[in-house]
Amino acid sequence: MSEEYRDNSIVFVTDDGEELEFTILKSLNHEGKEYILVTEDPESDDVEVQILRLDSEEPADDGESVQVFNSVDDPDELKMISGIFCKIFENDDIDIIVED
User: Fold this and answer.
1) Does residue 13 form part of some domain?
2) How far apart (Å, rounded) are the C-alpha atoms in residues 8 and 36?
């Protein structure tokens, strides 16, 4: 993966309070919804990615807002969004494979 992704990280907090750091490879807005393509290890030769959808923004105690991302579970939506990401990366020698 390219150096351009190094500083583009996001930390997710699970329902159990565990913090997981991901690198955002790309974001896109499609039909009024925001999606991000993330990975835990952008330096790997065989990068595994996840597509997440921004489902809400909630106020936080510090006055900022907390963005709530969830996995895309609908197979048709996942196929459509992964196809868009594939087109975005088609010139970068990156293949996005959706596993059933």
Assistant:
1) yes
2) 12
Within a domain: residue 98?
no
At 10-67, the pLDDT tens digits run 888 888 989 989 999 899 999 999 999 998 887 777 778 889 999 998 887 887 788 8
- Give the range of the structural domain holding residue 36, as residue numbers without chain letter: 3-92
pTM of the model: 0.79
Asked if residue 68 belongs to a domain, the reply is yes
Count of structural domains within the chain: 1
Closest of 52, 47, 17 to residue 33, by C-alpha: 52
Strand residue runs (E) in the chain: 9-13, 19-30, 33-39, 49-59, 65-71
- 57 inside domain: yes
The DSSP code for 93 is T
Largest CA distance in the chain: 43
